[in-house]
Specification:
Helix content is 74%, strand content 1%. By secondary structure, it is an all-alpha fold. It has a two-stranded antiparallel sheet. 46% of the residues are buried. The chain crosses the membrane at residues 37-55, 67-88, 100-121, 133-153, 165-184, 218-238, 244-266, 287-310, 316-337, 344-363.
């Protein structure tokens, strides 16, 4: 069998095997050897998810491909947060905040920084649409401030929480802003989110590949969803091992939310880096900022509705350290996107902020 045939077979079988393993280990206490097996298959499911996301993206074109992956991952991430909040007891009150904030920091600093470094090392100077990226960034900044900073300073309820009316207002605003962003990205100003043509005038060879058939696209979409379900489900099964490791090193429980976000955002990270290597930084920005927007704009409304039956409070307010990191991230991100061009320096700055976020999460 050819290498292409083996690759096609692997990308088809892996999601099925991952879901079968998930069904077998769900709700069980895993021994160390089985944890290693689950982790290995988790990585395989992530790689397969990226492959099928690229197939779908090639068929529907940008920015629809990035939007599909961002929404698919975020919807399943919300399900993971809800399931962990139901089974986590009082300690899970801050899980949603920790996961959403981690998603914002990972996307705006980790993914963006890595893509800028990879792209600039390969192409020296990378270009993207300042109009689309700055609009998306402004929406991220507004949603993150309204949903994660405001609860820390409001006085209706204590402890970084919203009152019922405030939470409902935040949910409506989040959904409205995200809906406007999707409309602008896909309808009104779609050209702002398309990759910038190379400065050297050379054509990208992948743009001339024939798009996959409708049948192949539908199959890839189904396998993409299966892979993402497997990724999140397997991540949940190894979460007790993650929590045990966090407790063993004496780190705060905030690290659990960071770990969840890192695993869930792996498909977007790999897809964004691949786009950066091909000098398609706008696609990388679409994936990164689109994921940040979906993480807030879809998670907050669902959690607001779920709090009708979820026990315990929902803590959304960030600490002082986290608010400083968020403000620094938005400032640096604004300076990066305003020119529409970047070098390895901007990427290094973003990665340094991301490293600072990880360090303060472990040692607050």
């Amino acid at each position: 069998m050819s290498a292409a045939g083996n690759h096609s077979k692997r990308t088809t079988i892996t999601p099925v095997v991952a879901l079968l393993l998930l069904a077998g280990v769900w709700g069980r206490q895993l021994p160390p050897l089985l944890v290693a097996v689950v982790a290995a298959l988790l990585v395989g499911a992530v790689l397969v998810a990226v492959h099928h996301a690229e197939v779908v993206a090639h068929r529907v074109g940008e920015p629809y491909g990035s939007l599909i992956l961002a929404i698919a991952v975020t919807v399943i991430e919300v399900g993971l947060i809800l399931s962990l909040m139901l089974s986590g007891g009082p300690d899970a009150a801050t899980l949603a905040r920790d996961t959403v904030f981690a998603a914002v920091m990972i996307t705006c600093n980790g993914i963006v920084g890595l893509c800028l470094v990879v792209g600039a090392l390969r192409h020296h100077v990378v270009a993207f649409n300042a109009e689309g990226s700055s609009g998306a960034l402004a929406t991220v900044a507004a949603l993150a401030t309204l949903c994660l900073v405001l609860p820390s300073v409001t006085t209706s309820t204590p402890g970084g929480t919203f009152s019922a009316a405030q939470l409902g207002f935040a949910a409506v605003v989040s959904l409205a802003l995200y809906s406007v962003y999707v409309f602008v990205q896909t309808v009104r100003h779609r050209d702002y989110f398309l990759p910038v043509e190379p400065a050297d005038g050379q054509e990208r060879p992948e743009e001339h590949l024939p798009p996959p058939s409708n049948r192949t696209t539908v199959l890839s979409l189904v396998l993409l969803i299966m892979s993402l379900v497997a990724v999140v489900g397997l991540a949940k099964t190894v979460s007790p091992a993650i929590e045990a490791g966090v407790s063993a090193i004496g780190a705060p429980l905030t690290v659990v939310g960071v770990a969840i976000a890192l695993v869930v955002l792996l498909p977007e990270t790999l897809a964004a880096v691949r786009a950066a290597r091909r000098d398609r930084l706008q696609t990388s920005y679409n994936l990164a900022l689109g994921s940040a927007l979906a993480s807030i704009g879809l998670t907050i409304p669902v959690l607001a509705a779920a709090m009708i039956w979820l026990p315990g409070p929902l803590v959304l307010g960030l600490s002082g350290t986290e608010m400083i990191l968020l403000a620094l991230s938005m400032l640096v991100s604004t300076l990066t996107v305003v020119a529409g061009r970047a070098t390895v320096l901007q990427g290094a700055v973003h990665l340094l902020i991301f490293a600072s976020f990880l360090f303060t999460a472990v040692a607050p």
